[in-house]
Amino acid sequence: MYMEMVLAGLMAHTFSFQVNPRSVSTITAVLILGPTAITIVESPGHPLRFFFAALATYLSTLAASIVAYRLSPFHPLASYPGPLLARVSALWQLWTELDGKQHITYRRLHSQYGEIVRTGPNHLHFCSASAIRPALGSLNQWHRHEGYGVVVPPGGTGSIMTVLDPATHKLRRRAWDRAFTASALNDYRPMLGARLRQLRDIMDLRCGDTLDISQWFKFFTFDFMGDFAFGSAFECMARAADPEHFQRTISRALRLLELCSKIPWVRAFVLLVPSPIETLLRMSMDLARSRKGMAGSPQKDLFHYLTSGDGGDLSVDILSQDTLIAVIAGSDTTAAVLANALYNLLTTPLAFAQLRAELDAINLPDDLEDCDVLKNCKYLNAVINETMRLAPVIPNGPTRMPPPGQPVVIDGRVITPDTIVFIPFYALFRDERYFSPDPDRFWPERWLASDESVILDHNAFIPFSYGPTACVGRHLALYEARAVLAMLVQRYDVEFAPGYDPKQWLADLKDHFIIETGTLPVVMKRRVVD
User: Which cofactor does it need (predicted)?
Assistant: First the structure.
């Protein structure tokens, strides 16, 4: 019996290597079919005891064979350095992610092993500016990793972010591109101006009180993205809360997505039980149906552009997922940039004063609907760039993999199919080869310096990613960030709340696919201008 189970375990490894099982039925068959068959054939007097003995032998052989191969010199990634446990199992990645500090771990690994690190059985991290263009510049040569599809329901098409086929992505992207033209951005100004005035009025009422400005930034961006995607949805600022728990559900769904992207076969089992991803998809479907029922609405929001032109035949299922992606990509991310920027300014008073001096030379309209003048504020742009450099909203960056059966060259290395490649933004943006001196210091002046001793490689700075899947809404996000920061710095004196330790802010920053922020208690007072 034992010899049969050893052979069956070795055969199962060979089968799994060739087929790469993803369905529940196939995975279950790989795990128990062999022991079940031998139990039936042998027909012992104690079948249950026999089955578990056979199963233990079988699974032990399967695991030993997998580990031996992954550590052997025959593995395609054998020549790349990295932690031993990372070579053995993707569970190592999950372990590093538990405390939300994986971005710091990967940076440390690059310092230890160099610019290319093996961080999983089939995972490579490239901390190299020269890897950006070949890895992210084309979806024809490099494909999105299958982990992007973990939130697609069985039989569903998925959102623009989860589309793996390059041709389909290109077609779907056209509607999104129309939604972010200069003309379209002008259409969004009234709704953004209204939310800015609402935030300003709330801050005026709460002057002198301690408030968690990080949470209020989330309320603001969530409300605006609700307007932008669904024509009005959340009203978090008015309620000073997220009554539908949409934000919390997004956070939980992103953590589950992180799990499934590390171990793709887990997705098959996640879909069998209720999960935050399922809840999120259901909530967005309800919002999409409600917005679609507003046929003939004069408001030009994202939904309007996705349902016109080439996107006119999109199903409600696709529309709900696309608009959901817009809310996720444009709410917590922009709120994190705003909160990190304000934290950096409060811990660097000279930078705060410099920014205020620049903004005092500008007259923003009282309705805050036309903030184009801020685009030319060099120091404001430097503050935002420096903030995104130090705390990128996707710290571990995007992933890519070669097309099936087609090895690809990157940085002079041949990358075999099924290899998942990461471009870790956090480590890359703090690499002294590209940002020096003091790559860990908040120093907006580095973006304005003409001194040759200051190293600033713009090719290594891609906070909105790069290539055909780069963030299509980056201009809107920057416009929004400039407007909020300018309004706050011009109008209020801001300081940390009494008793708050600023070091806690950095300790609370977590990487769960998208950067998560903690609380940032501040006291704001109306500025007195002489």
Answer: heme
Question: What residue ranges do the domains of the chain occupy?
Answer: 2-71, 166-526
Prediction pTM value: 0.91
State percent of the chain over pLDDT 90.
48
State how far the Cα of 217 lies from the Cα of 243, in Å rounded to an integer.
16
Q: Would you say residue 264 has pLDDT above 90?
A: no
- The CATH class, in words, for 166-526 is mainly alpha
3-state secondary structure 40-99: HHHCCCCHHHHHHHHHHHHHHHHHHHHHHHHHCCCCCCCCCCCCHHHHHCCHHHHHHHCC
Q: Which range, 128-142, 315-329, 508-522, is most confident?
A: 508-522
CA-CA distance, 324 to 314, in Å (whole number)? 15
What pLDDT sits at residue 14? 72
Give the number of other CB atoms < 10 A from CB of residue 220.
Answer: 23
Q: What is the pLDDT of residue 500?
A: 97
- What SS3 state is found at 515? strand
In angstroms, the CA 295 to CA 65 distance is 59
471 is in an annotated binding site: yes
What integer pLDDT is reported at residue 178 of this predicted model?
Answer: 86
Determine the 3-state secondary structure of 274 from DSSP: coil
- Tokens 């909105």 belong to 464
- Please write the tens of the pLDDT for every residue from 348-404: 999 999 999 999 999 888 989 889 999 999 999 999 999 999 999 999 998 888 877
Nearest to 121 by CA among 100, 94, 139: 94
**What pLDDT score was predicted for residue 154?**
55
Calpha distance 461→483 (Å, rounded): 22
Q: Between the CA of residue 126 and those of 116, 136, 410, 424, 514, what are the distances in Å?
A: 5, 12, 9, 7, 19
